Amino acid sequence: MRKWIYHRAKEMLDELNELPFSDDVDDKKLAIIRRGLRDASMELFRRAAERTVKELEDGVHLELIREKKKLDDILKEDD
After folding, report:
1. What integer pLDDT is reported at residue 66 of this predicted model?
2. Which long-range contacts (C-beta less than 8 Å, at least 24 apart) are formed by 6-13?
């Protein structure tokens, strides 16, 4: 995430530096900053969601392994 933030911040800096001076330059700068913050927020949520899905999948997989072991133990007892 650190690399992503660095590269996105660099892009924003380049955009800010390329803005020509005008009456609405502050509004344009604010729009660039807001867009960068929105992008960072969306990226953080996307990565958190991916991590959560992976953890849930791993948890379900682990639970299935435990259930299979229980069934195997029950079948061994019946033999």
Report:
1. 81
2. 8/36, 8/39, 8/40, 8/43, 9/36, 11/36, 12/36
| Eight-state DSSP code of residue 23 | T
Give the tens place of pLDDT for each residue, 9-33.
999 999 999 999 999 999 999 999 9
Look at residue 59 in the predicted model and tell me its pLDDT.
Answer: 78
Sort residue 19 into left (φ over 0), alpha (ψ -120 to 50) or beta.
Answer: beta
Amino acid at 54: K
Contacts of 40 (CB under 8 A, 6+ apart): 5, 8
Sign of CA dihedral 19, 25, 29, 34: negative
